[in-house]
């Protein structure tokens, strides 16, 4: 799946990413002018759509698929991540690690096992469904600036997925992560100050993205087969939104062929397949995690993500 017919659409990607980098600050700028709840609600919706699209492009960068030039690829990823706000190199290692841990005991958020606390597993899943996963990442920026050593598995013995993630972090990116976290904090503080964005307005608009991004994070995996590649689903919304999200909902196709750019993912589906609804998949997650006796080893436990 790395043949010439799946070449990186570099010019298209740069055009889309550039439009995103103009649109995102423009929406936040408008938050300073908002004078009604309806206006804020529309801006939150707009930021949710625009930043989820930007995250999909950032996701291409994580897989070295945004641009064939590595400097351009990761540079655009860093810029897009600032509006998350998060460290690109932290997000990238987390996502690449997800691909090798997917549906193992270290990455099964819809299951709990013998000896695990079911309440904690429910808190994790329901927190993800309500936007708290995004909030945790956003707050982590401040923690990384003042105490970067927090990225250590010794602080997360109670949380198996977090421990597996932290054990996989490469120390060579530690300075980049702290610098990017500082840049994100300074950028958003500057936008709020110079554009006179009230803190409540800022939080409402940002949470338009935070809630929707967090809510979608496990919808494509909930209840799927315990296989590192096949443990995902292709879902759908409607054509225009799926296109704006750069076919992120072709999620099984992406896990099966992670080196194929977003543009081609729909072509990889079985013509007989009828993808389910993203909203339906989200609602099913509210059933909560279930107890399982099936154990699937993380074959890459303890290995560093490059």
Sheet having the most strands = 2 strands, parallel
* Integer count of domains: 1
Order of strands across the main sheet: 1-4
Span of the ends, CA to CA: 22 Å
Shape: globular
- What percent of residues adopt helix (DSSP H or I)? 40-55%
List segments where confidence is low: pLDDT < 50 over at least 5 consecutive residues: none
What do the pLDDT scores average to?
Answer: 94
* Structural classification: mainly alpha
SSE arrangement, N to C: HHHHEHHHHHEHHEHE
SSE layout:
Elements: H1 10-31, H2 37-62, H3 70-82, H4 88-101, E1 111-112, H5 118-129, H6 132-146, H7 160-167, H8 174-194, H9 199-216, E2 235-236, H10 239-244, H11 251-256, E3 276-277, H12 278-284, E4 290-291
Parallel strand pairs: 1-4, 2-3
Helix pairs in contact: 1-2, 2-3, 2-4, 2-9, 6-8, 6-9
Written description of the protein model:
With 306 residues, the chain is mainly α. It has one domain. It has twelve helices and four strands. The strands form two sheets. A two-stranded parallel ribbon has the order 1-4. A two-stranded parallel sheet has the order 2-3. The longest helix is centred in the first third of the chain and has 26 residues. The protein is globular. 38% of the residues are buried. The mean pLDDT is 94.
